[in-house]
Amino acid sequence: MKFLHRPDLYAWSCFNLARNIDFNGVAWIHSEGNILIDPVALSNHDWNHLESLGGVNWIVLTNSDHLRAAKEIASQTYAKIAGPIGEKDNFPIFCDRWLADGDEVVPGLKVMEMQGSKTPGELALLLEETTLITGDLLRSPIAGTLSILPQAKLRNPQKAIASVHRLTKLPKVESILVGDGWSVFRDGRKRLKELAEVLSIDG
């Protein structure tokens, strides 16, 4: 797994040929048990690295299209799975916990619901106020910039745009770890505001 901007954060990726983009998993190494977010498949090297860091207690899935390797990892580690409460009635795999807006997975990892995306109640996670971890709605296919899903894939474009505007009000966001594409490690709030301005014009 790759070192990120904090000593307790790691990421690993797999390249999606159809979309020409990396799919990313994130690991937060936490004293109360490690947490994986939208985990893609782990190589043998990554498995060994994760085990050396204490394994995994929880897997958080931001939406049903980001199941990725969660079921396989949970079956091998006995990790519990948490998913978005907005999909509780139709989520394709068993979840031990359902997360709603304002919940904390553990202290310091806050849940935000992104409305209007391609699945109901998609989650974004705010880590200790400064690192935003996103699922499908917010992405970065081009390094240094943020974008959202194409309008044709959105359940409600105006609600999706409002969700992005909500993120711009987070005062301390510096880094944005996206599920799909290139993560942003500096000036995250500035990048969010740039995106919101474009969406306001185009929307």
Describe the structure.
By secondary structure, the protein is α/β, with parallel strands linked by helices. It contains 4 helices and 13 strands. It has helices spanning 44-52, 70-77, 157-168, 188-202, and strands at 2-3, 9-16, 21-28, 35-37, 58-60, 80-84, 97-99, 109-114, 122-127, 131-133, 138-139, 147-148, 175-177. Strands 1-2-3-4-5-6-7 form a 7-stranded mixed β-sheet, with no helix packed on it. It has a 4-stranded mixed β-sheet with strand order 8-9-10-13. Helix 3 packs antiparallel against helix 4 (188-202). The radius of gyration is 16 Å and the shape is globular. The mean pLDDT is 96.
Topology (SSEs and partners):
Blueprint: E1 2-3, E2 9-16, E3 21-28, E4 35-37, H1 44-52, E5 58-60, H2 70-77, E6 80-84, E7 97-99, E8 109-114, E9 122-127, E10 131-133, E11 138-139, E12 147-148, H3 157-168, E13 175-177, H4 188-202
Parallel strand pairs: 4-5, 5-6, 6-7, 10-13
Antiparallel strand pairs: 1-2, 2-3, 3-4, 8-9, 9-10, 11-12
Helix pairs in contact: 3-4
Shape: globular
Number of strands: 13
Q: Please work out how many helical segments DSSP would assign.
A: 4
Sequence stretches where pLDDT stays below 50 over 5 or more residues: none
Rg to the nearest angstrom? 16 Å
- Share of residues in helices: 10-25%
The CA-CA distance between the termini, in Å, is 38 Å
Strand fraction: 25-35%
What strand order characterises the main sheet? Answer: 1-2-3-4-5-6-7
Average pLDDT number:
96
Sequence of secondary-structure elements: EEEEHEHEEEEEEEHEH
Largest sheet: 7 strands, mixed
Secondary-structure-based class equals alpha/beta
